[in-house]
Design a protein that fits this description.
The protein is of the alpha/beta class and 515 residues long. The strands form seven sheets. It has a 16-stranded mixed sheet that branches. A ten-stranded mixed sheet has the order 17-19-22-25-28-31-34-36-38-39, with no helix packed on it. Helix 6 (389-426) packs antiparallel against helix 7. The longest helix has 38 residues, at 389-426.
Length: 515
């Protein structure tokens, strides 16, 4: 046999002669010659001569995903003689059909594994069409649903109190809401040819509440009255609003309103405003009294002239407070507190680049944070964080009062029991006896008072618990002349300090540097 056929190296002198011999013998080689240079795994031979021969199509298996949206062909990791591994695309597709894979077969993927088998791995050959999911129904609101009484802090650190919007009002018949109904999806098909249903989409229940009416199809909501609108817990509530577009003083008279009060002017000249809802004043508050069972928002601040009282069961937000008495059960937001008495059952947030507490008595149960405390002239300022001595004393007084009231109730019950015994012993009815009626009234009166006092005591207990983690944080400067207080402890600031925080320690108040 030719050295070229054997793969041997030949010299240049022999090259011409071997090429001639090669050309003369094309097609005239035997299997031994072929075996000398064709790799073993590429020689197919005759499968029928191999007693262990198994057709390739019988060696593959089909696997589907759990959701039947994908089908894979798996070729054995250890295949029999690969000389016989012959697959045709049509053969594979027919096999998939026999195995139940009748939809989404990719002919290109099948052809690829026929031409270039991949052993010991899943090969994706079919994909179903997933269902198109429907669209959830949703409400489109035409009024502001997320209101806040917190002031807006600008990029430069200044505070915009006038941008606060804590109350949203609407006119009668205003379009409030439109409901976009749910849209059902369309089915898909898995690799076995079966429909795959999309998830059913349910429409949202109608909105509940009061003060509105709906269109005939129930998709649109309209205001049934002019007033304040709120959206909370999937309820729309419209309530009356007392709204004034000018200043409020003695010419208006006292305002006692079972709803929200909005004043776009000033409040002055000893005006008295009481609201079951919130109070919002756009201009300056001066020489007046404001009481709210909810929040108070004073966009232009308070010039109290030592004759202004402001109380809120909720929070208070104001640009500044000067020479006024202010108290609230919620948080207080301000830029400046100047020579005022402030009592806050939650937390005081002094906002702005130069937020300051100067002079007066300021107390917040849950803590205070400000940029500046006191001033360079050493004005006397009392700043108390945590429970005030007055609140602690009130708890003691309440405890004693409740005990005394319960003792009185016990005496009354003894007296009522005597009437019952007298009734049994004498066979008389004492139910209408004036003395017994007087005792009953005293019992009811005492029990009502006990309930009120116990509620107040419980609230103070909760405040005392919240006060445990209270601190006074001064992010810039605190000057001499400031007295920092916590319960019965006192820390007198003598010299200027910067970036400090005061907290209650085991033996009193300690001052720490803010890192």
């Amino acid at each position: 046999m030719s050295d070229i056929l054997k793969g041997k190296t030949i010299t240049d002198d022999e090259l011409g002669e071997d090429i001639t011999q090669l050309l003369d013998n094309i097609g005239d080689y035997d299997e031994e010659d072929y075996a000398d240079y064709v790799p073993e795994d590429e020689r197919r031979g005759n499968p029928e001569d191999d007693k262990d021969y198994v057709p390739a199509i019988n060696r593959i298996s089909v696997r589907t995903s759990k959701n039947l949206m994908e089908a894979y062909i798996v070729m054995p990791k250890q295949a029999v003689d690969r000389r016989y591994w012959i697959l045709e695309s049509k053969e594979v597709i027919d096999y998939l059909t026999d195995m139940g894979v009748v939809f989404g077969v990719d002919p290109m993927a099948v052809r690829k594994i026929c031409d270039s088998p991949v052993f010991g791995m899943d090969v994706l050959v079919a994909k179903g069409d997933p269902p198109i999911e429907g669209t959830q129904g949703h409400f489109e609101f035409f009024f502001e649903t997320k209101l806040s009484n917190k002031p807006v802090i600008k990029e430069d650190g200044t505070v915009d109190f006038k941008a606060i919007k804590a109350v949203e009002t609407v006119k009668k018949d205003a379009h409030l809401v439109h409901y976009h109904p749910a849209e059902q999806g369309s089915p898909g098909t898995n690799v076995c040819g079966f429909d795959v249903a999309p998830k059913p989409i349910k429409d949202l229940p109608p909105l509940t509440g009061k003060g509105f009416y709906t269109s005939d199809d129930g998709l649109d909501y309209y205001a049934d009255m002019a007033g304040k609108i709120e959206y909370k817990d999937k309820r729309i509530t419209l309530s009356p609003v007392f709204e004034v577009n000018f200043d409020v003083g003695t010419d208006i008279g006292n305002v006692d309103f079972e709803g929200d009060v909005i004043i776009h002017g000033c409040v002055t000249n000893e005006a008295y405003i009481k609201a079951a809802g919130s109070i919002t004043v756009d201009q300056v508050v001066d020489n007046c009294s404001l009481y709210s069972k909810k929040d108070i928002i004073l966009k232009s601040g308070v010039k109290g002239n030592e004759n202004t009282t402001i109380k809120a069961r909720g929070s208070i937000t104001t640009e500044f407070v000067e020479f006024a008495d202010v108290s609230c059960e919620g948080d207080l937001y301000a830029d400046v507190l100047f020579n005022s008495n402030v009592d806050c059952d939650a937390r005081i947030h002094m906002v702005g680049n130069h937020s300051s507490i100067i002079g007066g008595h300021v107390n917040a149960v849950e803590g205070i944070e400000a940029k500046v405390a006191g001033n360079e002239f050493g004005v006397r300022s009392f700043i108390l964080f945590g429970m005030s001595p007055q609140k602690i004393q009130r708890m003691k007084d309440l405890k004693e009062e409740i005990k005394q009231l319960k003792d009185e109730v016990a005496k009354v019950e003894d007296g009522l029991l005597k009437f019952e015994r007298m009734s049994e012993e004498r066979g008389l009815n004492f139910k209408e006896d004036p003395r017994r009626i007087q005792l009953l009234r005293a019992k009811v009166r005492h029990e009502v008072t006990i309930g009120e006092r116990e509620m107040e005591y419980k609230r103070l207990e909760e405040l005392k618990e919240k006060a445990k983690d209270a601190t006074l944080k001064v992010n810039a400067k605190i000057y001499g002349g400031v007295d920092v207080l916590n319960e019965d402890h006192e820390y007198k600031v003598i010299d200027y300090e910067a970036h400090v925080e005061f907290r209650k320690g085991p033996t009193g108040i300690r001052m720490e540097k803010i890192v």
